[in-house]
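Everyone, describe these structure tokens:
***
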Amino acid sequence: MNCRSEVLEVTMESRQVEEAMLALLHTILLQRSTGKFHYKKEGTYSIGTVGTQDIDCDFIDFTFVRVSSEELDRVIRKAVSEFKDALSISGSDGVGQISLEFYQKKKSRWPFSDECIPWEVWSIKVNVVNLANEQERQICREKVGEKLGEKVINIVEVINRHEYLPKMPTQSEVDNVFDTSFKDVQPYLYKITYQITDCLGTSVSTTMRRLIKDTLAL
């Protein structure tokens, strides 16, 4: 099985990191989740509905849609918070990457543990810049909102392609494909990881500041 890999890149202030990552990760998970499966007998089941909720950002001019599951939101927020804190420790200008990997389990014979086979990975590269004043921050607030809108459209376009998805499992195999730990939603099995780079490349930092200065000049 070939694992699909998609890379998104965004530049922003440190105070915008949490909201931006929640917006992108929740957008992906909304597309990669189903309602809970209700099995009547082996091979026969119905699927519950997935509720959605609009979320307004405080530091970005942007509203995103997420699954209305408080349990799932807490899990995503915890991972994003750890990523944001690690970025903050690295300094005012930093680079990091947070990845959302979808996988399925392949049962192995005892005494070996199950094999986890990834089938799709989303990597979000984050460049953090330190801005000089409130006017620059306001422009960044708008520009980041525009970029997130572009990324969300890109995510939906990619996911709507007719490419590999794990086949719908039987009742005995559902835990090999879906995370069934949530009471109100059933995402495909996933894990979130991140890594941090010490410093921001000059070209990325300069590009964002030039964009802001060009906007001020209009």
